[in-house]
Amino acid sequence: MEDGTQHLGHCMVDMKELSASPEGLSAAGVILTPKLPQVEFSLACNDLVASGRDRKPNALVQVAVIDPHKQHLVSHACTEIVEANKDPLFLTGVTFPSEYPASPETLVKLSVYDAKDKTQESSSFLGSATFSVGDLLRAKDERLTLSLRSSDGVCTAGTVVVSRLKMGEMEEVDVDQITTDIPSQKCPLVCESAHHSCTDRENNPLTGPVFKNPVCKVYRFQTMDSKWMLVREQMEECTLSFSIPKQLLALYIQEDMSRVQDLKELGDLSPHWDNLRKEVMTRYAGIISSYQETLAEMDKINGCSFKPSCCKAQKSLEFIPINLHTQRMRVTCPKKTDAFYDIVTVGAPAAHFQGFKGGGLQRLLSRYEAEKKSFSTAYQCIYYSPEHTAKAQEVLNIMSLLQPLITRLVDQLLQAAHEHSSPGLRDALKHLSDKVRQHLSLSFAITSISPISLFLFTSSCCSTQSIGMSCQMIFTSETRQDTHAVYNLRCASWRTPRGSLILCFAAAFSVFQTKLHFCVGPSTSHCSIQCSPLHLFFTGDWREQLCPLVTRLKDCVMEVVEKAKRAMTFVLLQEAACSIPQGFLLQQRRDIVFSQALAALACGFVMRLYAGMQDKGFLRQLHLVGLVAQFESLLSTYSEEFGMLEDMEVGISDLQRVMFKITEAKSDDLSDLQPLVCGRRDHFTVEVPLPKLVFHTLPEEIKEGKLLRVFPVLFNVGINEQQTIAERFGDISLQERINQKNFETLEAYYKSLSEKVPLECLPCFQTQTDIKELLETLGQNVVAKKKKNVEILWTAGTICRRLNGIRFTSCKSAKDRTSMSVTLEQCALLRDEHQLSKDFFVRALDCMRREGCRIENVQKNIKCRKYAFNMLQLMAFPKCYRPPEGTYGKVDS
Q1: Pick the catalytic residue: 78, 527, 811, 853?
Q2: In the CATH hierarchy, which top-level class contains the domain 15-223?
């Protein structure tokens, strides 16, 4: 092999080092124009001469770039091996993305080998040729025919033909006319379907802030009618891999610090409860300290946008999703519009650092709830179900939002009174009445959570009689054994001078209704305003007459909030006391898993939103119903992966607590276009900023800030040798339950969608199988007792694409099994939607697995171009999930 040429087994240099980051956006949010457009070309050879004259060579071309500054070769790409052919046509092309620092003067060296495989020992050099990018762009028909020179530079070893490829421009070229470039015909671009227009990824003005470090691969495959299609894969990292977990960590810390402060403000407690409070506060302090340390470690990492699989058990990175990437396949066919197919690949959200000896979240949470009642007896506290504690937290959150809102509305009312504005007064009163009634309904909700909270919230004094009545109420409930709670009630110093706060609150607002001639209909929940003029009820200064009423209402609101806060804090204290220590450890594990899942979901949502910005049907579906996010998992239900799947199930389910909101960015700077997370553990909102000009093209409902829902569904089918053991000797009930439960969720989503959105808004596909029929097929498969029934995954993925959804694929590290699944799905789409020739299906699959983005993903993760399989493992795989010979070997992953 020639000097200066890198080992053939490392044909692609790390694109992170070669890609140039976008400098910024213009006023319209457009990335600055790069020096060159995307340059892609195909390769073919003629009249190759093998080292042995009696045989035809197994041809392979290595592509290297000559660094103009350092004058040495940098390995860039490599074709597949075409066996026994002296005139080989290579399906794998070469691409220089627009981000690549190339120029017309960039020199490209093509080295042709006779190779059994891609190792130095089994390859013999045939010849090489060099050209510049400018030569190709200036050439007639943008095609070069170059003579291959042997190592001594004397003998001609054949020719190599370099033909520029243009996505979106494709002629009906016969197989025999591969190297002929006839004037091309422009094709419109579409996204996810054959009739929705959108901007291509490399020219999309929105990709810069979130997606980076692209790796591109290009191919040409034959169709059933002997024409040629162009296919490009583009894999990118996502900045949300780190930014979302960092934001979540900050929110977790803020929430836990707020809870510690609430516990401090409970006031004097009995010795028993005071000791428990101190213990709970110590636990929270430990979590806060741990999260602060993790956040500080993450802040030290600059410029990184993905966590490799080899770091999956690293504690400082446990909140970061594993190997998160987006992948887009773009297809150009003769006289057909382009099509795009997107997918997000990510390692299964799981707490790898904590391990899986006791199982994953699903099992641990079930066991914890079963044991919690016995803990409550030991710690002499009341048992609260997750539903009760979630309700208590929700009441606290909503009341904290309502208090300043009511205060603001009261100030508006006073301002209207000062201006003697009848319409302003009526509007302020109407909105105020709605919020006060909401506040009152929450006050009554408090009393349903706990008998003790009822007493703490409504008691006017701690008289012997009132405590006796409360104790009688408590001891007739399920908490009859909790004498310490009753004792604490005796010692409580919370009093109100007005008696029942709820009655006080209702009475205060009733004065408004009477004084201002507000009346509530007997059968309605909203207020109606009588048309009598307000000046009949007020004389002189309206504001002065309203001030005493306003003061009383404000005092009642303040007191109700304070009482409610203390009552619910006491409930949460009891729940936390029963959670020591297991509940706190589980909460940390759940935080970790959710962080990984949310980062992946946010990445997928942003990717799907950017792709569908010009699709009115998609945007309508988005704000009327929401999007389905389908997670495909290839984990086995055996050993550690069983625990991973249990973690993943809870993490994906917790995504139901997430809403999305699209906002107008403050500016077009990259930092202002990063998605932001706000909220608490029971509910998070991800705000996705868009440039001003882009934002104003959205439907009014979205521009007005409507929260957008996502419906996460998970389907799992194990395919490896461990799943074989589970199916024969173990337990696959977890997989069966997950698939059945999520099938029902997917079916319910489709029903809701069909009721609210015309199905004509959904994308069109060549395979016109009805979605209802696909759902029936999926339903039959999830209950079928069939081993490694991967049809579940195929059908669920097809339904997701038909429903305009977001596709995710996962295995333990999103590296090996995920690569087999993604490449299989891409080739199936080429076959079903673009008439890929049956004779080319296996060749296309092998090309993508040998030379495509997924083998580059393996290289990025473990610095080795081998899928981590051995022969014994592959015997257990379904045949279509097995990589080609020479691309696998047992390595540490």
Answers
A1: 811
A2: mainly beta
